[in-house]
Amino acid sequence: MPDVISFARGAPSLDIVDVEGLKAAATRAFDRDPGGTTGYGTAVGYAPLREWIANKHGVDPSQVIVTNGSMQADAFLFESLVKAGDAVVVEKPTYDRTLLNLRGRGADVRMVELETDGIDVVALEALLRDEGVRPTLAHVIPNFQNPAGYTLSGPKRQALLRLAEQFGFVIFEDDPYVDIRFSGESLPTMLSQDTAGAVVYASSFSKTVCPGIRVGYLVGPAERISEIQRLATNTYISPNMVAQSLVYEFCASGDIDRSIATVKAALAARVQRLTAALERDLPEARFQAPEGGYFMWVELPEGTEVDRVFEQATQRGVAFVKGTDFLLEGGENTLRLAYSGVTEDQIDEGVSRLADAVRAAQGAPA
Description:
44% of the residues lie in helices and 16% in strands.
């Protein structure tokens, strides 16, 4: 079998990680604050990084908690808010780990269709007003959504804020890809427009520094963050101070800006290459090229069985994630391609193999 070309993992390839910058940041962290870097710290995270994040979002540090990755942040928020039987709105499709976490808590997961400009707010309002569903929270990935790559429009952000205030639910603005925009215009976060204390915002340094750093955070009303702090204290006393101190030095020095610029330039080129390859080798596929982030959603012709495509692709040494992993039902002809972890010259060969796999799965000659 040929070497595997993987469109499966949402992580940057090593060639676009600023290894030298990270090494220098680690040295500064141990030199400048050996006590804070090596000590336990507190459950809210490394104080200088917490303040840097607060300044970034224009909030008081009491509204920020820094965690071991954004998935830890998600888990804390779900634990503090979601009980068995509670209705929770998510996008259709949505991140597979979010689905697993919520279903593991016994939540009544309500999927609302995801359109190319974000969640269908008309359908959401009908769910709330006509069906009388009263969700505890709505989980939304507003920028370059995982798995679809779509971005929530400005008017839909306003509509969500209005609905959250009117019907009393929390908007969980899960935003790890916000800084990885390589085309189009940036949009203000819902957090920055929230006047009712309805938004809890999450992000991560895994996509802008490196995935192995495992540093994420939550921003929200101080009372809610204080409640989550108690959960964090009981879970791990404090998160990883070494990693957080390193991230602070990387951010405070401005190295993060250079790193983000490198990542954006590389991913923009990869999307261009991927789009051209799909148009050439899989012209019957439907997709929208994203303006940022790591992922592209691909819809194959009706009747194509993604399980069969997956089997054929495995035999040909190309990996992807089946669309059905991101849904409670449906999506049997869809898949997610992550272009972040492949180099440009792997993309053409990877899509060629994928096209062969699709033809084989459909019963046509490869």
